Amino acid sequence: MNAPLLSAAGISKTYSGASRRVAALDNASIAVMRGETLGLVGPSGSGKSTLARVLLRLIEPDAGTIDFDGADLLAQRGERLRRTRRRIQMVFQDPLAAFNPRATVASALDDPLRIHGMGGREGRQAIAAGLLERVGLDPALASRTIHEISGGQRQRVAIARAIATGPDLIVLDEAVSALDVSVRAKILELLVDLQREREIAYVFVSHDLAVVRAIAHRVAVMDAGRVVEQGSASDVVANPSSPTARALVDAVPRLAARPGNS
Amino acid sequence: MTPLLARISGLSVSYRADRDAAPALDGIDLDIVAGERLAIIGESGSGKSTLALAVAGLLPRSAVVDGRIDWPAYGKAPLPGRDYGFVFQDAGASLNPVLTVGEQIAEVAERHLGVGWFEAFGRARELLERVRIPDPDAALGAYPHQLSGGQRQRVCIAAAICARPKLLIADEPTSALDMVVQAEIVSLLDELVREDGMTLLFITHDIALASGFADRIAVFHKARLVEAGSTFDTLAHPAQPYTASLIANHIDLDTPPLVSAGPA
């Protein structure tokens, strides 16, 4: 059995307010294999987004360890961390908030390439054009600003930016939740294609178990900061063992009828 | 003969700010039958929220409106709060942050039911119980920020049905909530509407969610009404390709997975 690409063990994070302490993460452990999608699913406040941000080193946990490709991720600083960041990318729910809205598509793609020293100015332009094409966008879009393009196009730009540095892992936090269903279907297809092509692992955070089941190989169900259940996506849906997973399964809206089977 | 609550005829709406842009609604004809649960389905830019605002008479003054909405059941345009209740997506923004939950619901009772403050508060407590707020007495004195998103939406529903309106309009009332809470809120709305014999206009992007309880669905796309019909017939026999594509793109637990069991 191969070692996981990333394994996080015993992750805890507590926020202290004026009157109470809230355990956002309570001894949570997950692992992701190379080229695999791990779905992180749970109700609001279950800690799934906090855990995603811990993996990205955007939030420092109070306790726990993270091994990324054989190295201690939480111990990395400075230049060492910067080199690792190139291999762990992210896509958030709202690309408008993730980008400077007045930046052009070209500069949004150029930033990571420049920061990680990938090619000269012209080389980077060629890479950016190739990335746009790869995510199904017209390279002519490069001169448009982020706020001029549609939500679906913006999410494609976010994906192009995430794959720009050739990452091994992309953390997607509710990345398709705000999209219309027709756009969502195409973005999910793109993610699956990119994964097959480049062996990228995804941590796919969502409150929607149906979408997670469609795209993830394995699922970790979270509640109150804990991972309460883990398993293959089909097993968790077919035989949920925790009350949290059972509630998530029951909450998925079902079509009352479909064409062709009535 | 089914009594008609409202008849929408040739309704077009455009927002003056973008005169050159396409209209938000374009020539809509749609009847709302008294006592039905009618779901308005649409993606972004379909005009579904504009329709909700038009029905409620809440369009901004700058909107250019053509066509008409008749209200045979009222004989005049309905009054907000009294004749219809409105539940918005963002419960946090529809509640006043500096008033307690009790004050906000009681205010509706006092204004529309013509009762005194003491009685209005009693009505508020009764409603909090009806929308199944766990501790109604504590909730009466709570401020909106002290409640969860789902509880806040329950409070908004309580305020919306306070004056016993005939019509309840809910515009994406569960889109900001997680799925477990969404399921609870939808079943609550369904139950309240049944018990009180209200008409429900439910606006949503989620055709499956609507199909769980709506009697009829009306599908909107790019400012136009694509088709309207009974929920079952429309889903089983969509007349328009757009409706068929909405159904085909829906992901639920019967959708074939996009990945095979093991990693690539």
Automatic annotation (TrEMBL), chain A:
It comes from the Bacteria. GO terms for molecular function: ATP binding. Gene3D superfamilies: P-loop containing nucleotide triphosphate hydrolases (3.40.50.300). Keywords: ATP-binding, Nucleotide-binding, Transport. Signal peptide: none annotated. Residues 6-249 form the ABC transporter domain. This is ATP-binding cassette domain-containing protein. The keyword Calcium does not apply. Belongs to the ABC transporter superfamily. Pfam families: ABC_tran (PF00005). InterPro entries: AAA+_ATPase, ABC_transp_ATP-bind, ABC_transporter-like_ATP-bd, ABC_transporter-like_CS, P-loop_NTPase. It comes from Mesorhizobium marinum.
Automatic annotation (TrEMBL), chain B:
InterPro entries: AAA+_ATPase, ABC_Ni/Peptide_Import, ABC_transporter-like_ATP-bd, ABC_transporter-like_CS, P-loop_NTPase. Keywords: ATP-binding, Cell membrane, Ion transport, Membrane, Nucleotide-binding, Translocase, Transport. Its EC number is 7.2.2.11. The keyword Nucleotide-binding applies. One of its GO terms (molecular function) is ATP binding. It catalyses: Ni(2+)(out) + ATP + H2O = Ni(2+)(in) + ADP + phosphate + H(+). SUPFAM superfamilies: P-loop containing nucleoside triphosphate hydrolases. Residues 8-247 form the ABC transporter domain. It is a peripheral membrane protein. It holds the Pfam family ABC_tran. It is found in: Cell inner membrane. Belongs to the ABC transporter superfamily. The complex is composed of two ATP-binding proteins (NikD and NikE), two transmembrane proteins (NikB and NikC) and a solute-binding protein (NikA). PANTHER family: NICKEL ABC TRANSPORTER, ATP-BINDING PROTEIN, OLIGOPEPTIDE TRANSPORT ATP-BINDING PROTEIN APPD. This is Nickel import system ATP-binding protein NikD. It comes from Mesorhizobium marinum.
